[in-house]
Structure formats: structure tokens, C-alpha cells
Fold this sequence. Notes:
mainly alpha; Endonuclease III, domain 1; two-stranded parallel sheet; 54% helix; globular; binds zinc ion; DNA-3-methyladenine glycosylase activity
Amino acid sequence: MKRCDWCEGNNLQIEYHDKEWGVPVYEDRIHFEFLLLESMQSGLSWQTILMKRENFRAAFDQFDYNLIAQYDELKIAALLKNEGIIRYRKKIESVINNAHAFIAIQKEFGSFNQYIWQFTNRKIIVNRYQASKEVPSKTELSDLISYDLKKKGFKFLGSITVYAYLQAVGIIDNHLDSCFKKV
Ligand SMILES: [Zn+2]
């Protein structure tokens, strides 16, 4: 069975690729989970994030943005002592900041899901490359969304991070032409 080449040789990445990557997300809680994980990734490997994913889930109240928005200095101090997650103050503070921005979007658009899918008119963008090295790291769409998110107060979500997020939540389907997950 052929898979996208980036996940080969790693069970955690294979399982993620087969079960989650590129499956369209329509639930706000899951959108927030991926925004959090992707924002944590910058400068690290996705493998590192996947390995720590359950630690993140436990540390950040199952990715409940309403609870995260209420985190105070005491909670930040506790998170900075948690060896199971990424202990980088600016990233942790950005998660709290992003929870506030996320809730503001829900209020403005009804849901984050409603907001994010409007960028493609609710359609999945399908690209078929032969190898991962051909896949761009960002596009005009990710530039636009990153810019808009920044305007709305989000941090640690540059265009490259946003492009990774759009692939994760299935707004962009970048399974390779040879991959069995290709629809
Ligand atoms: Zn694939």
C-alpha cells in the first residue's frame, strides 16, 4: 500500500496520515486543536508534536478554548513546568491569546468552522503532486488566511503554519497521486 512519502517509516505518522490528515473537519473544537498543535510546531518536527499530543490534550483541558481563554499567570507557570509539552512561554501565551481570538470569530461568524470554510466557498481544494518535495510550503490562500487571522489577533500562525493546518483539516487535500488515500 502506497502512502504519502512524508509519513513513511514512522508508525505514529502513518496512523495520523491514514486516520486524520486531510479528513475534512467541521467541528470548532477540532479546528482549535489543530491550530494549537500547528502553532506549537513552528521550529520543531510534526513527529515531536504528535508524540506530545496527548500531553498537550491533558495540559490544555482537552483543547477547550473557553477554559484556555481563562488561563492566568499561575496556570502559565504550571504549564512552563510541564515537561510533557513545549515549554516556550511565547507559544503558551499565544495559545491563550488565540483562544480569545477564536471565541471572537465564533461570535462574529457563528462558528470558526463557518469562518474558515468561507475562504474556499466551502469546497475542498484538491492538489495531486507526485512527491512531497513538490508540495509548496505556502500559497496565496494560506497568505490570505494567515493575514486575516493576524488581523483578528492570532499569533504563531504564519502562512506556512496555516498551510499545514489547511492540509490537516482537509480544506486542502494534498494526498500524493500515488497515495491510497487519494479519493
Ligand atoms: Zn496520503
